[in-house]
Amino acid sequence: MYAHLATQIPNATISIISPPLVPTSPAPATLPHLAHLCKTLLQAASQADDGVMTFLGDSSGGNLVLSLMLSALQTDASLPPPFSIVLLCPSVDLRLTNPAIKQVEKHDPLLQYGQEIQTSKDWAGGWSLNDPRLSPLLADLAIIREKGVKVHGITAGYDILAPDALLFREKLRDASIGREWLQWDQ
Q: In whole angstroms, what is the distance from residue 140 CA to residue 25 CA?
């Protein structure tokens, strides 16, 4: 599906990254390698003709994209920022403590709370689920605003990740970060 859409964008280079995940490679082992790749991609984009780069992530990929962008921009002030970040039904809080999740779970055809909690713990690999690198809902978003990065997203009413993603959308609004979000009812 994404490949067809990508062909409709003139002069675009699309890079699809499929990192190793749990149980093979938890966050403490994976994120440093992805951070290096992220910085390399941002530097390469800044040298391209138009220099526009958007990072997109779906579900746990949204968590990765957001965490990596925040980390990269916070640790290297000289790094050129992406134009935007696009999050599709993102996982933004691996603690999964939002009480609305239980209400949505009975409608979610794919994700189950118990399985997601276990996956979160496995991915943490010893890090606290309160760590903003794992739960970007807890992160300071000032660098995103300062660099002018827009954060767009889509959430779905029958997705157990939606309650936290909606809180993240509100956090973006409160931080005056440019954004456009679509909420599907189901």
A: 26
pLDDT at 9: 76
Structure confidence at residue 169 (pLDDT): 97
Between CA 54 and CA 91 the distance in angstroms is: 18
Q: Which residues of 93-131 are buried (b: 16+ CB within 10 A; e: fewer)?
A: bbbbebeebeebbeebeebeeeebbebbeebbbeeebee
Q: Which of 164, 159, 156, 157 is nearest to 97 (CA)?
A: 164
Token pair 């931080």 in the structure block, residue: 175
In DSSP terms, which residues pair with 87 in a beta bridge? 57, 153
**CB-CB contact of 142 with 41 (8 Å):** no
E strand or H helix at 87: strand 84-88
User: What parts of the chain have a pLDDT lower than 70?
Assistant: 1-3, 6, 186
**150: helix, coil or strand?**
strand
8 Å CB contact between 117 and 157: no
Q: State the DSSP H helix or E strand holding residue 43, giving kind and residue range, or none if neither.
A: helix 27-46
CB 63 within 8 A of CB 91: yes
What pLDDT shows up at residue 79? 92
